[in-house]
Design brief:
It contains 13 helices and 10 strands. By secondary structure, it is of the alpha+beta class.
């Protein structure tokens, strides 16, 4: 989880988090439900009950979104595709899947799993309505959850990447062409087309008098366009990096420090004094660990003067290392999958350099400037 998320726990080993933007949509939904939906459906409730049911319904909406994302995640795990986390945020939820599906059929099943879960929830809440007929708050909750889960199904089946429908479309194009990257480009550009439709429809609504609703539709379109554009850019980067190796982008000179200096000395003499952010830790001629700003920040500042680098470092045996002949794109994916910003480059059990995300970005800029 990032620092912008509140961790809620784990389900099936997947980290569940709440983005701070969730509180914005939770407040807006509660206000809308308490001020519009419930008073229109049920006219004789006390005001406090409207607000209480508005809050409960907003929470249940996000429970439905979480189950939707878990549907994707369960099928992804079935195909041994790692799922790092699920985050609930302003626009609903997103599962952070750490690798591409192994085949077009796997992509199709992973993509359809979420809408299928939402459809099952809609049917379930519909069948519950007769049982809740004598309890108006439960009946109102069930009716709204039928509507919202059906809306999730229909919205996500729009054939524009990165929506589920776009991923289904990508799977079909992938199966036809046999080329995942080409399928991703086509699906992402279709996603941008639908994003522009949302933006246009939103602006039209705004000038037609429905300013709030139109603004929200346009905002969704803007979000979808950004997500689709990011996919297009990722494919372009992958094409640029194709055939290039870690040895071409790594930093061959990596600062090293001895095990016995304190964290305070490291900060004063090497980080603030030298501008370095990552260090190999050597005991004699042997590299025994890695020291990063993140590891330093995990130690309380008052203990820096008495804590040695050896005590705070990440031991070499726990480090993810990479071979200099590994393809750069594969290395970048490995960093993303493991949630790290740098990897030691090792040949014959010796660290010969360090590869960071910054190194890859610099290499990409050089390729773009050279037009290669």
């Amino acid at each position: 989880m990032t620092r912008h998320n509140i961790p809620l726990g784990r389900i099936l080993g997947i980290s569940i988090g709440l983005d701070y933007s969730w509180f914005v949509i939770f407040a807006l939904l509660t206000w809308m439900l308490a001020g519009s939906y419930y008073p229109a459906e049920f006219k004789d409730w006390p005001p406090l009950l409207y607000w209480f049911m508005g809050a409960v319904t907003a929470i249940m909406l996000f429970v439905s979104v979480l189950l939707h994302e878990l549907g994707h995640s369960v099928v992804a795990l079935r195909y041994r595709v790692p799922v790092r986390s699920i985050t609930l945020f302003l626009f609903g939820g997103v599962a952070q899947i750490g690798a591409d599906p192994p085949s077009a059929s796997a992509e199709f099943l992973i993509a359809t799993a979420g809408p299928l879960v939402s459809l099952v929830l809609a049917v379930l809440f519909y069948t519950v309505q007769p049982l809740a007929a004598g309890m108006e708050p439960l009946l109102g909750l069930a009716k709204y959850l039928v509507y919202i889960n059906l809306a999730l199904v229909l919205f996500n089946l729009i054939p524009g990447y990165p929506l589920d429908g776009g991923r289904v479309f990508r799977a079909i194009v992938w199966a036809i062409t046999g080329k995942m990257r080409r399928a991703t480009l086509i699906a992402a550009n279709v996603g941008r087309f639908f994003a522009f439709l949302f933006i246009f429809a939103g602006i039209w609504q705004m000038f037609s008098g429905n300013f709030g609703g139109g603004l929200w539709i346009a905002f969704i379109g803007w979000f979808l366009d950004n997500a689709a554009s990011a996919q297009v850019q990722q494919v372009m980067f992958q094409d640029l990096l194709a055939g290039h190796r870690v040895s071409q982008a790594m930093s061959p000179r990596c600062a090293a420090v001895p095990t016995d200096i304190t964290l305070q000395q490291l900060v004063d003499e090497h980080i603030l004094g030298g501008g370095q952010r990552c260090f190999l830790v050597n005991r004699g001629d042997n590299t025994v660990g890695l020291m990063t700003l993140h590891r330093i920040k995990e130690v309380p500042r008052r203990d820096w003067a008495t804590t040695s680098v050896a005590q705070a470092m990440l031991p070499l045996e726990q480090l993810k290392c990479i071979d200099p002949d590994t393809e750069l794109w594969a290395a970048l994916k490995e960093m993303d999958r493991d949630g790290v910003n740098q990897l030691p480059v090792v040949r014959d059990h010796h660290v010969i350099g360090m590869l960071s995300r910054g190194d890859v970005i610099t290499f990409l800029r050089t390729l773009q400037e050279l037009g290669t």
